[in-house]
Amino acid sequence: QALVNEFARLGEPMPQIKARIAFNENPHGLSPKAKDAILKAVESGNRYAMFEGQELKKLIADKEGVKPENIMLSAGSSELLTAMAVYFTGSAAKGGGGTVLTSQFTYDDLLGCAKKFGAKIDAVPLTKEYRFDLAAMKGKVGPDTKLVYICNPNNPTGTIVPAAELVAFCKEVSAKVPVFIDEAYIDFLEPKDRPALPKLVAEGYNLFLTRTFSKIHGFAGLRLGYAIGPEKFLESLQDYSRGEWNPSVTTLKAGIASYQDEEWQNFCRTENTKASNLLYKGLKDKGYDYVPSYANFVLFPIRMKTKQFEKEMFSNGILTSTREYNNQPFCRVSIGTVDEMGLFMDVFKKIV
Ligand code: PLP
């Protein structure tokens, strides 16, 4: 957005965007079954959703081994992240403020909101493999800790913590403080590689997960997400967000269709791997390192200032994103189609 504003301010002609690979969107679009469901749902757009949410929650609950009461739907997971921040750090009745324990270089929606409510953020450095340092985090849990926030796979690094390590961490730490795992990108892992965290929720641990349809399901514009957590907690969370009532009938019907379309999810996962491999090869050939990713974006160090890199890419029709960590500039490029990654590499080679 800043780039678009900058071009408008300077009165420069807006470049034609050939590859939009900045926001970790799904470049393949919706499942054909979801599209069909949307067309059929047009007639019910005048109504609030009533039974559709229950139907979707039942599907998710059956697959994850929890009860429908352990699930709360939302219009994208962002609103759940901010509702969690308000719930744990914003309420004067519960003491407010406190500390959110997390890692450096992670997704900051929840953290930014918690800061606005006076919370301190204790951000532990990443390991040298760009992973959350769970051992170091464990040692930092204290009386002031209101919440632990972990993003797995992590945005912007694309790394994961080994499943068994994460499960052990959640069991131990959630006995002391609430633990929240943001699993926005979990669908990019093969089902057998996903940590069995919903099972811990079913067993009564003080653990919360969020997921989104924005990524593998391609619903970034339709807006659908959900939390998995203790039933009593999710009831209270409704006071901080109209979550459950927010997704439209159209979106829910499409979500029900997409959730069951495993063929489409497998297709998107496979294409994501193909396009990532192409990018890895291109970067390696050019002598650039990268952080191997378990999501639909890849982080790699660049040898140019972030703003300049973004602007030069944008001028050549590539919309991508950059970050800094420990004074090192990085590009975090979303994985587009194979063709889009080819375009990205062509422009990259031209500008560096
Ligand atoms: N969590 C992470 C780690 C994300 O990267 C994003 C979006 O990119 C979100 C949550 C929120 O996504 P949405 O509100 O579309 O579900």
UniProtKB/TrEMBL annotation:
EC number: 2.6.1.9
Pfam families assigned to the protein according to its UniProt record, in alphabetical order: Aminotran_1_2
Enzyme type, top EC level: transferase
Keywords: Aminotransferase, Pyridoxal phosphate, Transferase
Record SUPFAM superfamilies: PLP-dependent transferases
Family matches, as CDD domains: AAT_like (cd00609)
Domain annotation Aminotransferase class I/classII large: ranges: 22-341
GO molecular function list: histidinol-phosphate transaminase activity
Family listed: Belongs to the class-II pyridoxal-phosphate-dependent aminotransferase family. Histidinol-phosphate aminotransferase subfamily.
Protein's UniProt name: Pyridoxal phosphate-dependent aminotransferase
Organism encoding this protein: Larkinella bovis
